[in-house]
Specification:
The complex is a heterotetramer, with 2 copies of chain A and 2 copies of chain B. Chain A is of the alpha+beta class. Helices cover 34% and strands 27% of the residues of chain A. Chain A is elongated and about 80 Å long. The chains are: A alpha+beta, B alpha/beta.
């Protein structure tokens, strides 16, 4: 999932007819213009709770703006530093609302969410204070939904009309940009009408091939995760010391659970996927070895990925890497005899039974 | 009589049959005993894959072979079109193996299938195997054994692991269905459980869930209200960190929703035995069946 | 037991009830005996029309009244949204009186209704009257008489003329359905004839067709194959010139397709008696019923 | 239905990515540019068979073009004269194809029609030479349909790709412009690829409110039909002498049929529609009187339109217009007694029975 930054999202909002403040993106203090009115400086960081950490400041002129930027630069936002800033008009806010379009897995449809309790994390708002309208993608947003949303938010007249345009815009963003979330929080009711004061747009990874212009981002990922992602591998860093490679997401999660239940500390999730190329196995072991402290557990249930392929990869990887950690290999399924033979010939033990393999891994990790 | 795939002679085509995966699994399905009557790859009509005739379009394949089911191996950017082509050609059961289909496309495909009276299984799953009948998908042929257990799973290899365990225990399976690891899947866990409940041959149901979404919680509700057969569940991802996508697009804990704990609790409250490891599953089934 | 409208207490709402037509016909329906439980006009919630409560949205109306059917008088530009609102609120039968809804919208509305399991009757038609049960639409209350004839028609006033003739002849009607004069209608002549065939109370079927399209030809096919009851048809537009839209959007002969001659011939080949004037219809019915 | 002229349609084609020749619209001979290559001059008339009548001419320079325009100006195209001309490149045509999107009432969906037998009236092409693919509007045109169309038309490579774009463009025109027909005939296969040499786009009347930019046209209508249409009345001119007013399209057609079957000659179709305003009745009688020679037949089955309203309108109209033709009024349904009373009091007879009224009309017309 790619999360767009506030200013990127606001540009998209503008394109889709959603009212946003006139804003300027500031990269360096030099870019701050002269002004003499109430404005706001906002850190552009891909993480929530920015305001509480001091990332949003009211300023009245160039000098105050530059000072604010310098101060914000010092702040750590959950591991991120602000490199860009939005400078925009500070509105007189009558009310902060919330509105978004996102997928609801349970109804298997996009839903419109709206709440009069904007400006806070929507997860903290009680369900009865959130309007939730499923949208059929064959139909899109309808007028009656817009009317219902306006009534729910207590808007009428021009504001209700603007809300309708905003909802249509958000849904078009969701649909046309393959967004998993298109959110305005807060949607401010000001003396000048409704204005989107913040933006959150997340684009689904699987659909990025349709959106070559969307910047690929690795927010919230550590270095090895980024490295894996660039290689198209599915890797998640955990906190333990036992490296794990398994084929298939479910088997991987189950392997982590078994190790943890047996008292071991998994270091990662790592889905080898389906492959018939020993090189991919070598690559995987190389990557996993970066997080493996004591034991690397390779757990394969052969299907598309055959056990002999994995065995060949393991043998070559061990020769190349000559790792310090211990290795436990469990292979079952397609070509398991051949796989076991290959491993055996190269002095690598393999275990057929999963429970036994897990016991062995945890035992070795405890030594 | 198994579920979803109940006819030994069900004529099946493979879309994307000339690809690496498509050709391999077409032959594997044939080896299993599936009546693979043709394949489709636009532009490759008139050729064949291991004796299976290849057609340019699903319509041609259906006209020539009478196919009523399809297994889709077409790459993600082209898969939605392939599925629509299949549905429009009158295919009633479309098993999508393809991974990484955007959920936006699946939302629409699922509605389209409903509109047209077709059923989708998958995507991003291993398909369906009805033991002794036919296999539509990529599950290894060797792990099955005819028996009384219906298995529904969000996973691929974990399903193989569990099915293998069930088979080795002396039990066996009616139908194994991998519904797929995505956020939106054509056939849900809830539907599969309902089908198993109605199937005479199935005496016990195994549900293999994982973190993310609320399918397990909703399945537990259904089990509580509608299911008389013993159910054993396994949930993967008990130790998965929140906010991280664990391989499957659908396997993610968002906020405090979609945790393994929530699912396990829901199942337990519905009287489902939750196994803590795959090897425990056949033990629990046997207990429940009094074997 | 009549068709489509079979429950005397079916709770019905009127969308666009505060309009000129909506209010008049809401009262007329009530006078007929229809259980009109509410009306919908956005922005007018809380008021009433002749004692019928008005709501801002269909959802509110459904929540408060349990309505399961709706009659739509909303002007064409807003009617499609009103229909979707009704369907989304769980209304199962939507009778659209509105004229001039673009056929592009109707194509989609019809598919949407199918997807959601709802039924549309109309647009651009007089609705449904099940004699002695309820009227959903705008047919004059006075023309009906309880009897054995099911009437399906593409027309409005011509239907009244014919129903009146049938009633005056001493026969009478089970249900009269005006499917509407547009190119795309929610419920087709074919479907209505099938429903009458299945309805125990209906002993004879009258089909009122007109030029344009092929609904009559397709209905004739169905009658030939599936209908055991006597059918009498009337076709309007025998002397209509080709290429001209005769009032109804659907009443147009294009090239040599959609002529009255083609329809009459198709009916005759299916064993249907085709009346040459409305007054002949009850005579033909009586002959066929041996009365 | 509004039929666009060739040049209007081609502009839309261009906007929707359908390749059209570079063309120039000529209004007067002065506008013809200098040129020295094979070009074509085409009359812009809203009627078919233009080529056969001499409305399309090959020209090689300015002088020939002016001469061609002058010649074409003399031609009668089913009642129309050419006032505008297209001047465009004359392509070297390898093959003339046909492709269109239109509504298929029988399947209740738009259909893609394609044929290798282009350049002729599609109605004259045998069904087996036309590919017909229904399009679900929730899905739109799909790639597999495009492939099938290309194969059916014998196109491959770049031409197949272009065809795909053309089909997408046509469908978008159908959908976004509420067209009832978006047709290219011929779609020429030239050495430069596929080119739309003609255009036919018809916009549905009922959807014109969504397309204020579409010019309202009255092609193929006579003066009184145009007058009626401008007033929002549904009127069709027929060739006889008996004027007809009825309420409802079906009753109207049936009335015409009954008159004709009885040996009379109806002069028109005229749907009074539903009304409660006597003024509309007066207006209707005024219009109908323009085509009525001998007898005007008013046939009303009262429902929404009440008989007393109609009676009042008739009485006033007769007073105002003092017409020479005879009048037969048949009223039934809502408020028929009151209606009859009003007519009676004003010396106008009315008949209840339809068959009797028809006999009376034909009798009077024969006098």
């Amino acid at each position: 999932m790619v999360d767009l930054l506030e200013h990127e999202g606001k540009r998209i909002f503008r394109k889709y007819g959603i009212p946003v403040p006139v804003f300027r993106v500031i990269r360096s203090e030099k870019e701050v213009p002269d002004f003499n009115e109430k404005m706001v400086i906002k850190a552009q960081v891909p993480t929530g709770g920015r305001g509480k950490k001091g990332g949003v400041k009211i300023v009245n002129n160039r000098e105050e703006a530059i000072r604010a930027i310098q101060e914000i630069r010092q702040i750590d936002f959950n591991g991120y530093r602000a490199r860009r800033f939005i400078l925009e008009k500070a509105y007189d806010i009558k009310k902060e609302l919330y509105v978004s379009i996102t997928l609801d897995r349970s109804v298997e449809l996009p839903v419109l969410l709206a709440s009069a309790e904007g400006g806070v994390d929507i997860n903290s708002v009680p369900a009865e204070k959130i309007l939730k309208k499923p949208i059929n993608p064959f139909i899109g947003v309808t007028d009656y939904m817009k009317r219902e949303a306006a009534a729910f938010l207590g808007l009428d007249g021009e504001n209700a009309k603007t809300l309708g345009k905003i909802i249509s815009g958000l849904y078009r963003i969701y649909d046309e940009l393959d967004a998993s979330l298109a959110e305005i929080n807060p949607l401010a009711l000001t003396s000048e009408g409704l204005v989107a004061l913040d933006s959150k747009i997340s684009i689904e990874d699987d659909a990025l091939f349709r959106h070559p212009d969307v910047p690929v981002r690795y927010f919230g990922m550590d270095k090895i995760e980024v490295e894996a992602k660039k290689k198209g591998l599915s890797f998640v860093r955990l906190e333990g010391d036992i490296g794990i490679i398994a084929n298939g997401a479910g088997l991987n999660m189950a392997t982590i659970d078994l190790i943890a239940q047996a008292g071991g500390k998994p270091a990662n999730f790592f889905d080898l996927g389906g492959t018939d190329d020993p090189q991919k196995v070598i690559q995987a072991i190389e990557l996993a070895s970066k997080v493996t402290n004591k034991v690397l557990f390779v757990n394969i249930f052969g299907g598309v990925t055959r056990c002999d392929t994995v065995a060949n990869g393991i043998v070559q990887a061990i020769k190349q890497l000559n790792p310090k950690f211990k290795l436990v290999v469990r292979i079952r399924g397609a070509n398991e005899e051949e796989g076991r033979r290959i491993l055996n010939e190269n002095g690598i033990d393999s275990i057929l039974n999963l429970d036994e393999a897990v016991r062995r891994v945890v035992e070795l990790a405890g030594e | 009589m198994a579920i979803l795939v109940t006819e030994k002679d069900l004529p099946v085509i493979v879309q994307g049959i000339t690809g690496h995966q498509g050709s391999f699994h077409a032959m594997q399905m044939k080896a299993f005993g599936t009546n693979v009557v043709g394949g489709v790859t636009p532009g490759k009509g008139g050729t064949d894959v291991g004796g299976i005739p290849v057609f340019d379009s699903v319509k041609q394949a259906v006209n020539k072979t009478g196919a009523r089911a399809s297994v889709v191996f077409v790459p993600a950017p082209y898969a939605p079109d392939a599925v629509i082509e299949a549905i429009d050609a009158g295919i009633q059961l479309v098993v999508i193996i393809t991974e990484h289909i955007p959920f936006h496309d699946m939302t629409k495909l699922k509605l389209y299938a409903k509109l047209m009276g077709a059923r989708i299984v998958g995507p991003n799953g291993p398909g369906i195997t009805s033991v002794g009948i036919a296999k539509l998908g990529i599950m290894p042929n060797s792990i099955f054994r005819k028996g009384p257990v219906g298995v529904v799973s969000r996973s691929g290899t974990l399903t193989y692991e569990i099915v293998n365990t069930i088979s080795e225990s002396g039990l066996g399976e009616t139908t194994v269905i991998g519904i797929g690891g995505d956020q939106i899947v054509g056939t849900t866990m809830q539907e599969a459980v309902r089908m198993f409940e109605k199937d005479d041959e199935t005496k016990a149901i195994v549900v293999v869930g994982e973190i993310g979404g609320t399918a397990e919680e909703e399945t537990a509700e259904i089990i509580k209200k509608e299911v008389s057969k013993p159910v054993v569940a396994f949930i993967a991802g008990r130790f998965a960190p929140p906010g991280k996508r664990m391989g499957h697009a659908g396997a993610i804990i968002t906020g405090n929703r979609g945790t393994a704990q929530s699912k396990i609790q829901a199942f337990q409250e519905a009287g489902v035995s939750v196994a803590s490891r795959p090897s425990e599953i056949p033990v629990l089934i046997k207990q429940k069946l009094g074997l």
